[in-house]
Design a protein that fits this description.
Elements lengths: L8 H6 L5 H15 L18 H12 L5 H6 L2 H11 L7 H10 L6 H28 L7 H22 L21 H17 L18 H15 L6 H10 L9 H7 L7 H28 L6 H26 L34
Helix pairs in contact: 2-3, 2-6, 2-7, 3-5, 7-8, 7-13, 8-13, 8-14, 9-10, 9-13, 10-11, 13-14
Amino acid sequence: MPYAPEPDEDDLDAIAPPQPVFHVEQALLGALLLDPHRLGDVSGIAADSFSTAPHAALFAAITTLPRPDPAEHAKNTQWLDRVLATAREQARGLTASYLHTLVQVCPWPRHAPAYARMVEAEHARRRLQTAAERLVHTVHDVSLPHPVQTVLAEADALAAVVDNIAHRFPPRTGVLPRTTAPPPPAAPDPAEAVEEEQILLATATACPADIEAVRWLLPDDLTLALHAGLWQCLTALARRNEPVDPVTVLWEAQQRGVLDDGSEPGKVLRMLAEPAGSVERWGERALQRSLLATAEHTGRRIEAYAGDPANTPFQLVVGARRALADISAVRTRWQHATGATPPERRRPAPTTRAGPPTTTAAHSARATRATR
């Protein structure tokens, strides 16, 4: 007869074992329950720094209740009873036996400051991961009336989290995350992007004098390698003051090896012969797509870094700042394209230890126009 598990047995087997920080939190809480006066040695954390609601409720109770007299605390459990009663207002599942377990699993109460630093580091990682997830989610929010401004605001919020972590964990030179960064994302609507880029190239071919006005547009802003190569051809011909038309662009493309991917010359000629609208309009559209794609890639990079528990806060700060620098670069070009002049973003004040001057270039964006 086949084995029939109990109703909840499979669910219990599916529960993942607790992460190391859970045991660190237990050790810290046990130290504070055993020696409440050690709370004065603990800094940099609050109730929301803990990974579970019961642990957060216990820490909140420990920090809000008056500390007991050491001699009295050694003789009775009155203070522990008050801690349990207070914590159960927020976490009803707590029991006296769990408080006893916390005291028992704490190896050395005098190591409470080290445990608190570990809890703070893990909380920093979770905060960074949450902020990066919000940035990626915002990029994909199709309901936003002004996507660029909203995405840049989220990028600023992410940069503020990085700066705050850096104040508590000043980065060390050259310490990069070990995590492999994810590849750049594909265009959300590749067909639309390809069509608009083709119109951009055709319009620039028909109006080469307008290319100078969109110097902020780079080949990497275009989604296809062929389009990026043709844009390089157009800007090179315009810079040399040479004749620009579909034939001269095609010849330049051959000289630069742009057609080596198998692109048919006839199709390229037909594509370059269908202009519409203005170069600046289509250029802005391409740059907006590039900015949003850069923001998504930055968010996913930081998500990957923060999702790897082996990365220290020092590594997270260095990796996140390098990723955010990509947004800063395309943001500057967007400001040139749209005429935006945003104010400098106010940085948060240091909490406890001030680290070295930060270099995250993340300013609040006030783009005056962003076409969808």
